[in-house]
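Person: Please work through this fold.
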Amino acid sequence: MRVLLCLAAALSLASPAHAKEVTIKMLNSGPEGMMIFSPAMVKIAPGDSVKFLPTNPSHNAESIPTMMPKGATAFKGKINQAISVKFDKPGVYGIKCLPHYAMGMIALVQVGNKSPNLAEAKAAGAKLPGIAKKRMAPLLNSAQ
């Protein structure tokens, strides 16, 4: 019995900390306006995941290539399908819904407490189209 308890204790210490998964909904409308991610910004730890959930039809979630940390892997979800993305590299990640990008459907994921790519993401955010640029600016300003 004692051996089993020691083995169980050793295994629990050797297993990695449990990563969490945060859900961001893709909506046609909400308190912030039309065509939104809700919440529009999340802060997570490295190794955590974000599930992008299309609660209304015709949405997807995909990374904005110019708004990612160096060496991070880009992703592109399919229309009308949920996608869960694990974020390992610290930094900020710009996210868009491709069909509604011009309408300002964007989100921001901050991984870790400090974002080594924040200056580059702000520069890229200033080049986003119309409403997307307007919605992204306050998200980037609240990132660290």
Notes: Helices lie at 2-14, 118-125, 130-142.
